[in-house]
Every structure is written in C-alpha cells, then in structure tokens.
Amino acid sequence: PAGAKDLGLEPKVGAYLLSTIGFGGLFGRLFTGPLSDKTGRIPALAIVMAFQAIGFGLLAEADTATWLYIGCFVFGLSYGGGTVLFPAIVGDQFGRKSAGAIVGFIFAVAGSLAAFGPPFAGYLYDSFGSYYLAYWICSALNFLALCLTVFVPRGPRPSQEGA
Fold this sequence. Notes:
Blueprint: H1 11-39, H2 41-61, H3 65-94, H4 99-114, H5 117-128, H6 132-148
C-alpha cells in the first residue's frame, strides 16, 4: 500500500501489507455475518463503516510499519465485512426475488466507481507528495456513509414477495 515506500520500507513490506488487508478481509467476512445476525444488519454496517473510516485514518497517520500493518488489517476487516453485509441487507430490504440482480448492480457500480480511486489518489500524491489527503478523503467518505446509515429503514419490508 501507499506509504510503505515513503517510509523507506523495503518493497516486500508493501506486499506483506497487501496480504494483511487480505487476512483482515478474511476475518471480516467470518465475523461480520454472525455479528449482523445478533445486532441487525444496519448496526453491523455502521460498525463496518466506522472501522473503515478508522482504518483509512490509521493509514493516513502511519509513521511506522507497525501502524501500516494495523491500518491495513482494520481496513481489510471492514472491507471484508461490508462484502458480507450488502447481499444480506438487500435481501432484508427487497426480498430474495430480485436480490441477485440488485446485488450485481450494486457491486458493478461500486467496482466501476472504484476504478477512479487509484488515479485520483495518484493525482493527489503527485500534487502533494503523499497519500495523506487521499486517505483522509476516504476516511471522511466512510464517516459520511456511517452517518447515512441512520436513514436506512430497519426491520422487514412490507412486501417480501419471493422471500
């Protein structure tokens, strides 16, 4: 991840950091589903968004390899958790009849928009000499998403056709 080279770390540390995101994602996928079964989907989503905001903040402020590893793990944990929650939330909100199409659309849009993130982060790096601002923008956007979870309806929807 961005920042390892700036801290003077060896290139292999960057690869290890990417693996740390993957391990975090694995744990996020394993633990967020059961968490959402106990707390509800939307509270679990709020937790995931909070952790993702924290993860980006940790990456922005990391000044050692240890803090980069912690930031990457927290980010991976939250990212993996989010991938588990979105299909469940769609099923809860809209029923199962069209869940596949809706989830496919959500991930297609998210994936397409994510294609703009790296070039934008690169532009910020070229302009300011670090990824600091890019990480804080990502953190702020996740905090905004956290705030928006209060507007998501809770409980079963009136029509659960095909559920």
